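Section 3.1: Structural characterization of target chains.
Under the original work plan, the team committed to producing a structural model for every single-chain target entering the pipeline before any wet-lab resources were allocated. The record below documents one such target. The sequence was received from the expression subgroup and is listed exactly as submitted; it comprises 471 residues.
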Amino acid sequence: MGNNEEKSQVADVDRSLYDFRYEEKDAYRIEAGLTPEIVRQISEEKHDPDWMLDFRLKSLEIYNRLEVPDWGPSIAGLDMENVATYVKPNTKMAASWDEVPDDIKDTFERLGIPEAERKSLAGVGAQYDSELVYHNVKDEVSQMGVVYTDMESALTGEYADMVKEHFMKLVPPTDHKFAALHGAVWSGGSFVYVPKGVHLEIPLQSYFRLNAKGAGQFEHTLIIVDEDAYLHFIEGCSAPHYNVANLHAGCVELYVAKGAKLRYSTIENWSKNMYNLNTKRAKVEEGGTIEWVSGSFGSHVSYLYPMSILNGKGARADFTGITFAGKGQNLDTGAKVVMNAPDTSSSISTKSISKDGGVSTYRSSVVITNKAKGAKSSVSCQSLMLDPISRSDTIPAMDVRTMDADVGHEAKIGRISDEAVFYLMSRGVSEEDARAMIVSGFADNVSKELPLEYAVEMNNLIRLEMKGSIG
């Protein structure tokens, strides 16, 4: 795709997004770029404590100082001068089902999402599956001492000190330009605290507040799993996200204490005009485990590498991911691990699929420091290209600073074999279904790690991508 086309794809976004209504003024077009005044305005509207306003303003200074990354897919089509226009918490989102683009509507219908739920996903302030479900879940988990709330409430509630102690300590604003942007304009997201020894059997799911006020493209998720506790947190929703904004720079910070275990699952299907520049990071103490399960289907361009920092003896990180790049998509994804203590272990297993000229790049970094005696790490990346015009690259980096480590890496790049398609067709399966079945089988290691309804959704998404009916 040429750069001009790329630029127009973003310029064609619904421009009504850029007009705000304030109570004190009728209509006001916000100035281009980001200014301290805009940040103060966001902070005031969100009733931030003083330290958060200071934090936002410092982040803005860092944002203005840092350069846009020059090593991944081009984000030239993203007009950074307009970025301020995406951050106001009550930016007008598509307020009715009629305003949702046809391709997204079509996808919801093909995924079998009931009409009432589809409409609630499109409404401003509406909550998936009604307020009631969220509160039922909230009551059930709160009886176990688990805190599950929105970030704004957490910032000023009884856990304010815990938030202050952990907020953007794992992902500091100095990390990269979009982390700094996030620090300045973050809005929405979830706060979860699981007390010592509590094993939460039901997964917590962030889609209940998909379009609640303040939930934007800069949401912050902060999860603290205390000693010997267990949590499965699911990010995303049981349908593709609908979002007309074209930049997503969220941040996820996960703290896994001694002996604790956290599984963090994502099914991400942003609309295809989205620049997804998300930062996710976990710190794991002694004997703790972080498990990432990730399915990436959407976005025009993605930079996404969840990072695990193994800081305690025997800490473990597992990453299982699938990426599907179709027409007009350039998805640069992978994982990072820092092994910084003895007997730590990590495994990264990714599959990427590209079709219709899509570009899929697997990029990973495994760092084993001199403290990590007895460390074990394995990296496996497999790529499937469905036609001659698609592209797949793997860029694995390994930095091993101790002789006492066991490190393995394997990579495979291939195409669907005509023999396999022919075999399935000889059994009465159509060619289109045969190819979809083979791709679903290729993605099986991710779908089998997901709860049933998400596995079904992921297989439906693969089938729809194979039929070219999304984006």
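Residues 1-32, 89-95, 120-133, 208-215 have pLDDT under 50 and may be disordered.
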